[in-house]
Design a protein that fits this description.
Blueprint lengths: L2 H15 L4 E17 L2 E18 L5 E6 L4 H17 L11 H4 L11 H4 L5 H16 L3 E20 L4 E19 L2 E4 L2 E5 L8 H13 L10 E7 L1 H14 L2 H5 L20 E4 L20 E6 L2 E2 L6 H6 L8 E2 L7 E2 L4 E3 L6 H6 L3 E9 L9 E12 L2 E14 H6 L1 E4 L4 E2 L3 E3 L2 E9 L2
Parallel strand pairs: 8-15, 14-20
Antiparallel strand pairs: 1-2, 1-4, 2-3, 4-5, 5-6, 5-7, 8-21, 9-10, 9-14, 10-11, 12-13, 15-16, 16-17, 17-21, 18-21, 19-20
Length: 449
Amino acid sequence: MTGYEQLAKKLVQRAKKKGAKQAEAFIEAGRQSSCRVRDGEIEDLTEATSKGVGLRVITKDHRLGFAYTSDFEPSSLEGFVDRALQLAQAAAPNKLNGLPTLKELGKLGDTGELYDPAVANLAGDWKIKAALEMEKAGKAVDPRITTFDNVGAGDYVSEVYVASSEGMSAGYAGTYVYLAASPVASEKGQLQTSYWIDYKRFLADLDSPESVGREAARRAVRMLGAKRAKTQQVPVIFDPLVASSFVNNIAGAADGNAIYKNSSIFVSKLGKRLAPETVTVVDDGLLKRGLGTSPFDGEGVATRRTALIDKGVLRNYLYDSFTARKAKAKTTGNASRGYSSLPHIGTNNLYLEPGTRTPEELVREVKNGFYVTAMLGSGANPVTGDYSRGANGLWIENGELTYAVQEVTVAGNLLQMLQDLDGIGNDLQFRGSSGAPTLRFKQLTISGD
């Protein structure tokens, strides 16, 4: 047992001894480092370590107290436990306050490896070399790439431990490594930026710095000469990067708290068909090598695979234990948190399952339409389903990508968009903990000139 796991248990025991009915300690410790370069020079190089513990206590009369600290000195931890209990005394009682029970905690599943020694022991100059290589490769793509807004590389090593009075005591370590590039292309006074990123747990899975730099540059250059399009209704295709944000909108509407408050378009839609059979949206906390993979969630509940939409039918909402208790439902292992916050509903690895069509086929079947490569704004309003975002991309004419389009708005409604999903690519990509393939919608409104 590590020192952190012992400490978590000790804090729980101390809180119980001082009168808490239930107690839970959540410890996070990590190290992160990053490097940014500009025009062949190092712009900044940082390395930071952090650690902290959050303590939740619940009293016999259902009052909740929460405190956190990054001071692990034994003398200050004594007062820290007292502080959590004092805060509980000042809180209003709520019968729904409580920690996940042993039954709710469940049996921890198999996540596979989450920790890569190659990332944990990366040479200090790896980030510098990788960032410089990205910039150099990006500039070599086209002379119109004049500079980069941002080029960076970094790595994280983190440990998480949870102990609770209900029988939870476990921890895990994980690693992450990333590359990101955001070039600027310039021609005839017009500037276009784009970006590309790769983010993985394992160094061996990471794209090469050259390929990230080149893809970022290619995406910026193809936007040169962009113009606005006329207002019209046409088929619209989202590239995987944009499609993953659409999948996040679906998860937002399936948030158990929004459902409980009656502020989601998915209220009372469980078991109803919302999309074609080809559409399956999954949140999977056990996805091998996934960025959002972990054996347990932010309150120690075993993570699992939850299909939100299964073959077009809405099957599940997402819950943490508190919201599940309110809604008379069961937690889905979707409590998300850091040591300095109470749990809230979040996603693990969220994605829309790939189809069988190539992205090229999806484009080829469109006579006149819009291929979206970047979006601004937050997307769908979960209460009304209204979807409206600023978009850039490429116009499709007779099945081919032609000229660049910018400063238009793509609008629709989330429920209608799900029904109109008439093409799903075979190119599922994760550039973070949310993923999607290329998606084609039968018709959306483009507002431009």
